[in-house]
Amino acid sequence: MDPYVINMPQILRWILVNVLIVPTRAKASTAAYRSIWPDASEPAPLIRHSQALAKALEDTLNDSESFSVALAFRYGKPDIRRALKQFESESVEEILVLPQYPHHADSTRTTSIEKVKTELEKSNLTVPLRILEPFYREPAYIAALADVCREHMEEQTDHLLFSFHGLPEQHILDADPQQNHCLKNDCCETPSLAHNTCYRHQVYTTAKLVAQSLNIQNFSVSFQSRLGRQQWLRPYTDQVLHELPKTCKNIAVICPAFTADNLETLEEMDMRGRETFLRAGGVNFTLIPCLNQNPLYVQYLANWCKQS
Asked: Whole-model pTM above 0.85?
């Protein structure tokens, strides 16, 4: 129901969510979660990896200074309000917000940041708020992605697929401050103010920089997790995986839109995506993990906090 996620009038959004999405997806989503999370008494993979990242960051920061680190999710628990409550009792001087989204999108970064601001106004805190900007081209982030690629790519890999979370094309157009740049010929390569908020430009930049760091030429970009009938960013990952075996039999896939492994990486990609590729004639499919607690990534976040 978040308008940043489904940007249509509230009544239409309510109908879409409650009449179409929830009744048709609840059973499938439950089965998907069970496939990667068989023991519900343990934290879900996304929570487990996020908790470990928060702990690693706090340990790294407190080697030299005093920082308090709180984990919060935009939806679910632990929530943003609870995180701010923790800071109320600790006499903090400022709050640093580290959205775990390398690329700008209203449905991820904007809604999370606005929720932090809303809850901060309701709290007893009157301290400055500093927010980590999209870090899709930061050298330390690129180095961390290249690091996990080198660690997990098989020697026989002949193609690296960057599969990013999809977005409706309308989201790209709505985020264009010029209202006339995005989704046109060569728009992502043509310098523009729109690139500051263009998810498509930013993910292609990430892929290009990682490929350069790895010194590879055989790579491509696709988009996963689409929903509904509207046009989403293309090419679609499932279709790409079906076609790739015609030219590449041994592939590796990385999902850099996510910093922690979750349902979209562990089930949609490593299970369904793998099956699609192998059934189409592929031989080897390697899923490269998300950054999770990669030391280079933890150090990048820690350095930003200290510099702030």
From this structure: yes
